[in-house]
């Protein structure tokens, strides 16, 4: 399955949402890898530090 490499990602945290834009033209491989891992659930339940 080919994942899109453009668009936005919303990260849901316990203190609100984070809206992230994907830089598909500059980093297409990183965008595909990030989206594939996210769709497979690799980031579910991960502690987010800021």
UniProtKB/TrEMBL annotation:
First-listed, main subcellular location of the protein, grouped into a coarse class: nucleus
Catalyzed chemical reaction(s): [protein]-peptidylproline (omega=180) = [protein]-peptidylproline (omega=0)
Xref: InterPro entries: Cyclophilin-like_dom_sf (IPR029000), Cyclophilin-type_PPIase_dom (IPR002130), Cyclophilin_A-like (IPR044666)
Tagged with keyword NAD: no
Record bears the keyword Zinc: no
Family note: Belongs to the cyclophilin-type PPIase family. CWC27 subfamily.
Full protein name: PPIase cyclophilin-type domain-containing protein
